[in-house]
Design goal:
Largest sheet: 5 strands, parallel
Shape: globular
Helix content: 40-55%
Strand order of the largest sheet: 3-2-1-4-5
Radius of gyration: 25 Å
Length: 458
């Protein structure tokens, strides 16, 4: 808790200091740093709100696993908005309009919202690197779901969990983890080790038989049904005359939210096109000067309902790209394997030198705004795929084809092309099942940060 709190306070204080200094240096007002130092109680208010919103996990206040990244972003945004709005209200009632600039407050609020989660993630990486602050958990189960969960926990810099050991009824060990016993050993062993959180990936019947014993010891039990995928954002526990269950809301079916999304999509696309207008003048000139061929490249993709359309991009490849690819795949088995698994090549001989820059900065994807205007794509959605990729989606293709493909999406916000093909498919499905406006805002922010850092370019 302390280190995450320290990251939050450092972010707020650092943003305030930077904006006040910049505001004063540019001569926009007679505001001095001392006036803002007197507002230090804002940090106490932010701390209280963050605790109230359960943003500090792994401590006596809320000893559980962290919120999802989207939910954490939503609550951080709410906490920061309330904090800065309350300062403006207090200043108004105290008639101290000239002591602190409203512009500085508004700018600090916006920048803090944009940076808060990234600063937290930086602290999480530092904690993992130093091997401190990791929350001990027991993992129950030995099937595919348990192995998948173990891999996610071990590879995640976000969760901050440490699997102390595993329990199962089959006597099977998970690679890299110590098996601590069978199901009957869970409570006594965890009581001895002081483990208060259990992550269960076991069969429901076996899990239910000992649920009374588990709830007598564990403060938090995270139950992950084997082989099941549920929409989780906005899900809530319900009780029908004592029968417990989950209510899952398909927000993508709500007409008002769909209309809101269409309006937001078109509005942001127009805004982005206006901002990027100089690039639509400069990039075509450079493309023409550096390689032969057309300025734009149109590739067949599958859209909503499996309907084909042509995706617009700035050309980043040589005009004989297909021939170069065939020659490379025939001559290099390693590249042929990479292409078969990912439909991409880390060192693609088809890409021009300027094309590499376009892809590194994602500028080559700007013409896809035309597809958004024509209603063929959305700003945010699953990856637009070619027909040969459909078999790799298996039974989930109908889910993916139920919405428009996007210029960016959850797969891009979570690592872009650095993620495996299977992970990209899973992220596409996760986005569709859990869609909500906050997820779209989070994806836009994460994509912008990834593009600025030029990480994992496509």
């Amino acid at each position: 808790m302390f280190l995450l709190w320290l990251a939050d306070m450092a972010c707020m204080a650092g943003v305030w200091f930077a904006i006040v200094k910049a505001y004063h240096a540019l001569g926009f007002g007679r505001y001095v740093l001392a006036d803002y130092l007197n507002a230090w109680p804002i940090l106490l208010e932010a701390t209280f709100l963050n605790i109230l919103f359960k943003l500090y996990h792994g401590n006596w206040l809320y000893p559980s696993v962290p919120l999802s990244p989207v939910e954490e972003f939503r609550r951080l945004t709410g906490s920061l908005l309330i904090t800065h709005a309350s300062v403006m209200t207090v200043l108004g009632f105290a008639h101290q309009e000239e002591s602190i600039s409203r512009f500085v407050l508004a700018a600090s609020c916006l920048v803090s919202i944009l940076l808060a989660q990234s600063v937290r993630n930086g602290m999480r990486r530092l904690m993992l690197w130093c091997r401190i602050g990791q929350i001990p958990v027991a993992l129950v189960g030995s099937g595919a779901a348990a192995e998948h969960t173990a891999r996610l926990i071990l590879s995640s810099t976000y969760l901050g969990l440490k699997i102390v050991g595993t329990f199962d009824h089959r006597g099977v060990e998970i690679a890299g983890l110590e098996r601590l016993g069978s199901l009957k050993d869970i409570v006594p062993v965890c009581r001895k080790l002081g483990i208060k959180i259990m992550i269960a990936c076991e069969d429901e019947r076996l899990f239910r038989e000992q649920l009374r014993d588990f709830t007598g010891h564990f403060q938090h039990i995270e139950y992950l049904p084997p082989g099941e995928t549920f929409p989780v954002f906005g899900a809530r526990a319900v009780s029908l005359e004592g029968v417990g269950g989950l209510e899952m809301v398909n927000q993508g079916r709500m007409k008002l939210l769909r209309l809101e999304r269409e309006v937001l999509d078109k509005s942001l696309a127009i805004l982005l096109f206006v901002v990027a207008l100089p690039l639509f003048v400069i990039v075509p000139v450079v493309i023409k000067l550096t390689s032969r061929g057309p300025v734009f490249y149109r590739h067949h993709r599958l859209g909503r309902g499996g309907r084909p359309f042509k995706e617009w991009k700035f050309r980043s490849m040589y005009s004989d790209a297909d021939q170069r690819l065939e020659e490379l795949l025939a001559a290099d088995p390693a590249c042929a394997k990479e292409w078969k698994e990912k439909f991409k090549l880390a060192k693609d001989p088809r890409i021009t030198p300027f094309g590499r820059f376009l892809r590194k900065t994602s500028i080559d994807e700007l013409p896809q705004l035309f597809n958004v205007f024509m209603g063929e794509m959305a700003l945010i959605g699953p990856r637009p795929i070619v027909e040969s990729e459909v078999p790799h989606y298996g039974t989930v293709y109908d889910i993916v084809a139920s919405v428009k493909p996007g210029i960016t999406g959850l797969w891009q916000a979570c690592g872009r092309s650095n993620t495996s093909y299977e992970r990209r498919v899973a992220l596409d499905v996760e986005y569709i099942l859990n869609w909500n406006p906050w997820m779209d805002l989070w994806i836009i922010l994460r994509t912008a940060l990834s593009v600025l850092a030029m990480k994992g370019s496509c």
